[in-house]
Input
Amino acid sequence: MILSMTGYASQERNTMNGILLIELRSVNHRYLELQLKLDDNLRGFEAAVRELIQAKLGRGKVDCRLSLVHSADADSAPQLNHTVLQQIAESAKVAAQYFPHTQPVNMLEILQMPGVMATEALNTDALENDLKTSLNQVLQDLIEAKAREGEKLKAIILVRLQEIEQQVTKVKPMMPALIKQYQEKLTAKLNEANASGDDERVRQEIVLFAQRIDVDEELSRLNTHINEVKRILNGGGSVGKRLDFLMQEMNREANTLGSKSVTIETSQISMELKVLIEQMREQIQNIE
Output
């Protein structure tokens, strides 16, 4: 199974502690980078959340948002903590003696101070169990979304591979005629060189000719890389880095083919190969 690094999944779960909201969003990245945003009620579970995500995902920049919304039941509604309010009032009265010209206390700011609104204590054991269960399900949903996207990427890459194979197949039958054509040009140059008695030029032309016509090795390596890409795609798993390396190798062979080209036809094929390889590389950047 090929996994894309792009995916999204979320879940809303009713628990005895309130409504648990989980959202996972993943995009492509060189390695696994987690960005966790947990509200105060769930901050104590950050290490467990991080461990669960790292166990399931290999690469990608993952944004994880978790929050707990208290239910609207009367029994669970926040209540004023009179003890804390009394302490704040006494502190404000003492402070006013030193700063008599300060503005009156803003009641809304008082209500937002820590501890003023008391809520029913959370059942941490139950909350941890619900959190892990829900997060595992959301991770599974995310992986399934990444797998669906991965299959699309795989299909695109296979189409490009087929087009590359067609280009490579097109080169081979052309080579005898191209070699003959270039040999005729070389023969004319050699006759000219012999007429002038320049043996060094003859030697240089022969060496150049031998280098120019030898593209069988490049074509063979391209076919080998094509077969290896197919094998990796069919094997699945975390294959993005291996495929990216193969794209570099294929591009090197296409460049060498272009540098050894002696005709416009082979130069055009080399350019087309590089375009197709770059198109594959762009898709592979999204594979885990």
Residues 124-196 form the longest helix (73 residues). The two ends are 11 Å apart (CA to CA). The longest strand covers residues 18-27.
